[in-house]
Amino acid sequence: MENLNAVQAKEMIMYIADKIIEAKPMLTEVDSAIGDGDHGIGMAGGLTKAKTKVEKMESPEDVYAVFHAAGKAMLMSMGGASGVIFGSMFMAGAKGMDPVGEIGAEELAQMMKRSLEAIQERGKAQVGDKTMVDALSPAVDAMEASASEGIVPMLTRAEAAALAGVESTKNFEAKFGRAKTQGTTIGFQDAGATSVWIIFKSMKEYAETH
Amino acid sequence: MENLNAVQAKEMIMYIADKIIEAKPMLTEVDSAIGDGDHGIGMAGGLTKAKTKVEKMESPEDVYAVFHAAGKAMLMSMGGASGVIFGSMFMAGAKGMDPVGEIGAEELAQMMKRSLEAIQERGKAQVGDKTMVDALSPAVDAMEASASEGIVPMLTRAEAAALAGVESTKNFEAKFGRAKTQGTTIGFQDAGATSVWIIFKSMKEYAETH
Amino acid sequence: MKKFINNPEDVVSEALTGFVDCYSNYYEKHEEVNGVLLKNRRKDKVALVIGGGSGHEPMFSGFVGKGLGDAAACGNIFASPDPGTIYETAMAVENSKGVLFVYGNYAGDNLNFDMAEELLEEDGVKSTHVRVWDDCASAPKDRLTDRRGIAGDLFVVKIAGAACDAGLELDEVKATAEMARDNLRSIGVASSPGQIPGLDKPTFEIADDEMEYGMGIHGEKGIERTKMKTVDEITEYLYFNIKKDMEINSGDEVCVLINGLGSTTILEMSIAYRKLKELLDADGVQVHDSDINSYCTCQEMGGFSISILKLNEELKKLYDMPCYCPYYAKEGK
Amino acid sequence: MKKFINNPEDVVSEALTGFVDCYSNYYEKHEEVNGVLLKNRRKDKVALVIGGGSGHEPMFSGFVGKGLGDAAACGNIFASPDPGTIYETAMAVENSKGVLFVYGNYAGDNLNFDMAEELLEEDGVKSTHVRVWDDCASAPKDRLTDRRGIAGDLFVVKIAGAACDAGLELDEVKATAEMARDNLRSIGVASSPGQIPGLDKPTFEIADDEMEYGMGIHGEKGIERTKMKTVDEITEYLYFNIKKDMEINSGDEVCVLINGLGSTTILEMSIAYRKLKELLDADGVQVHDSDINSYCTCQEMGGFSISILKLNEELKKLYDMPCYCPYYAKEGK
Ligand SMILES: Nc1ncnc2c1ncn2[C@@H]1O[C@H](COP(=O)(O)OP(=O)(O)O)[C@@H](O)[C@H]1O
Ligand SMILES: Nc1ncnc2c1ncn2[C@@H]1O[C@H](COP(=O)(O)OP(=O)(O)O)[C@@H](O)[C@H]1O
Ligand SMILES: [Mg+2]
Ligand SMILES: [Mg+2]
Ligand SMILES: [Mg+2]
Ligand SMILES: [Mg+2]
């Protein structure tokens, strides 16, 4: 894949949704260990809505509109902190962009970067606060650094960076999230970061095969 | 003791009160096995009030007034079914009687008989319903049958009859009382019947030594 | 079970003091006995005195108010108040138009309230009573007077309070309250026990996956213990049992109370109400008014009951009169 | 923990349906989202929209009423409603005089309500918010905005509702509600956990003889875990902590709420109130009004909190305005 067109963006979202729905039990387990255990339910529900939404876009012509619709569907249905955070991951970077039929690696990286900024602006989490930002931030860095290599290599690096980010969350103490546990959270990975990794992994897998 | 005078009636009530207060833990245990465990607290509380009340009667001149005052103090303070029942045991038979300085065995027996009738009228319990009536009713029968022998022999027989009555309650299933247990009550003695026995035992002990 | 108390023996008196302190805009405590008195009460009507054992809060002390009880006589936990308490409480609020006592039908309460009525009679104060026996699981229909009073007490207090407010005479108020009582059925389900402060045994024992239909509000044995069911199934069973006991026909108007026994949440009871409403709709029964609340509790017992009051013209008129107390307020229609 | 539910996933929607069915004389459900709307609301005033996660009933849906919230946006259990739900709920009740949102200060709620405000702005609807951070145990005083909102929410809703009713403009209502928020402190104690329907773990774990000061209403870690104390000792500690945080002087007038977290009884909380009143009396503080109730729960969690609202002329006037909903009614003075 050289560029990502609007129809591919739609298919990519649908592919991500399937993978997140598949991972629902795993995400539940991860969130249960130190959170309130609802992250799998929330993400699976949100991405089901996103999938339904983009499925209805018959022959989409604007890549950004596809991402925006998916993010908005999540945002408007999930609730909790993660609804806004993960909705923004797809929506914020696509918001207000001029319609385009396809985007390259550079645009994709920039879109994710804008999303990251919006997420941090809204959620106030920094790297090291044991949130999804710990996976998204290095993934965005990796995208920016490797965008010139093309979409597939870029997403491959992004996935690896996200996974390392997930690992890093084990070293941090949680600062966000409503149902903090009583004990330490060190040694446990963050649920939202895990979702970020699954999303990048899915994007890469889709890109590799299309 | 040939007759019971008003001062002795007062002392007898005080003696009963001390014995019931002594028996509080035992009565609690008995009521706990199949009831709600408050019988010891209730009886001890009621007889403390009765004792305080008659203690204040400096040189009482009416035997019935002493019993009535004691019963009323119990009745007006104990609450629950047993307040009325045990209050009536002292009060009902003394109520409306012409004042007398002392009473003989016959009068004592008749007083208890009137109390029993009032208790059954109010409480509707029959012998065999596993209540204090199972001890009081045979005790009253014994009193009537042996009144001619004098107070001490009469109370000795009454105590024995009450104790046999307590034993008999083990064979019955409870029909009264607010907090019935879930299982069977057979094999357990009734708390109220136990109190009746202690009361007769105390009356006898007092009479023997005065 | 951990309790927020000081000395177990002081629970009732300390709680009454605090309760009356808290609602001192409305209530005062009787100086001598455990009676809660309404401060600014109407003086030209039959006095409504309610009461019973403590431990079921807000029942009974919390239903003293305008258009409700004029006073509540409070016993120890799960034990009837003594005749002295009842007598003094009634004397403090009676206005020479007589006293109606409304209380749950339990042996201890019956004995003590009867005794109090005798004391009032000796003083020339007219009084009478209505015993509430709404729990249709507590005895068969041919032994109505053996049935216990549970959350349905509230409806009888509401109607009796309105009848007093409407200026009815003592015998009329009594007849009206009895009409409410006779048009009323309740039945509950329990899932976990409550605990009396100071005692170390819970009011009953039940397995982790079990529940019991028809259990009483002191833990009295119910009619059937079974594995935990869905709330829809439970609601269906409860409604079915009420209908078996009291005719409810299409076109009837009813008031409904879903009453929590202590620790069951409004969230859960709302789901029960949803099902009950479906069943009532299917039967063509119209709900005039309804509540979901924990009005008659058994300490922190888990479970809830359904109470249904069938209205007629007269009951409806009285139900629609306004009432106010901190725990139960109706605007009136 | 046994729950009276059907499918865990349907709890919130089924409960909302039942709740609105039960109080259909007052409420209607938003057709598309989990919003509870007041039926006969005034149309000439700022709209007050409250909300947050479900599971704390009667908070928030139960505080929709006259002189209170015009609507409540309800999330899943212990999770903020999404911006769509908040937006649609607000749109259903706004009357072109703007919308004030009052909610507890939690990361998720802040994110979602902010997002909803942006959506309203895009549609030209003015809105603003007051976040309640009354729990003085949840963060030190120099990090006020990190504090959580607990039972004190009710006081801010009461004052904001009265300010709306009094015809104040949006910015004035906001300023008044903030004044209430800033004159308000709460702190609680927990003795046993609640449980989210469908989850098999309780919200926290605690030993049989322990309690925890300052625990949050979702089981958030408190400030001190200790052996169970007497309620007098506990009340003293809680009051002491509030006084450490907010100046309370002799002659001050306050409103007080003792709020049960789920399974703690009115009996126990009345004993706590008794002690609190003694302490306030000793400090020369006058109680203008007070309540003992379970208004902001954490499912069947054991424990209670104390909330104190310090009055000034303006707050008192607004507090004394009447309000009515099935769970909270004040007659007005
Ligand atoms: N302020 C925040 N910024 C970034 N990510 C956040 C923030 N708050 C929470 N998250 C992410 O959301 C995840 C939790 O999501 P979820 O369990 O669905 O929501 P909740 O915490 O409301 O139960 C966390 O693991 C974290 O990665
Ligand atoms: N109707 C009745 N007639 C006679 N005795 C009764 C009756 N009801 C209860 N009792 C007696 O009272 C005793 C229980 O007393 P107590 O435990 O003090 O009261 P409660 O049953 O209210 O807890 C029973 O053991 C029984 O002997
Ligand atoms: Mg979570
Ligand atoms: Mg007993
Ligand atoms: Mg008892
Ligand atoms: Mg959550």
UniProtKB/TrEMBL annotation, chains A, B:
InterPro entries: DhaK_L_YcgS, DhaL_dom, DhaL_dom_sf, Dihydroxyacetone_Kinase. Keywords: Glycerol metabolism, Kinase, Transferase. GO terms for molecular function: glycerone kinase activity; phosphoenolpyruvate-glycerone phosphotransferase activity. One of its GO terms (biological process) is glycerol catabolic process. It catalyses: dihydroxyacetone + phosphoenolpyruvate = dihydroxyacetone phosphate + pyruvate. Pfam families: Dak2. Its EC number is 2.7.1.121. One of its GO terms (cellular component) is cytosol. SUPFAM superfamilies: DhaL-like (SSF101473). It comes from the Bacteria. ADP-binding subunit of the dihydroxyacetone kinase, which is responsible for the phosphoenolpyruvate (PEP)-dependent phosphorylation of dihydroxyacetone. DhaL-ADP is converted to DhaL-ATP via a phosphoryl group transfer from DhaM and transmits it to dihydroxyacetone binds to DhaK. This is phosphoenolpyruvate--glycerone phosphotransferase. The lineage of its organism: Bacteria, Bacillati, Bacillota, Clostridia, Lachnospirales.
Automatic annotation (TrEMBL), chains C, D:
One of its GO terms (biological process) is glycerol catabolic process. It holds the Pfam family Dak1. SUPFAM superfamilies: DAK1/DegV-like. Transmembrane segments: none annotated. Residues 7-328 form the DhaK domain. PROSITE patterns: DHAK. Gene3D superfamilies: Dihydroxyacetone kinase, domain 1, Dihydroxyacetone kinase, domain 2. Keywords: Kinase, Transferase. The keyword Transport does not apply. InterPro entries: DhaK_dom (IPR004006), Dihydroxyacetone_Kinase (IPR050861). The keyword Kinase applies. One of its GO terms (cellular component) is cytosol. One of its GO terms (molecular function) is glycerone kinase activity. PANTHER family: TRIOKINASE/FMN CYCLASE, TRIOKINASE_FMN CYCLASE. This is Dihydroxyacetone kinase DhaK subunit.
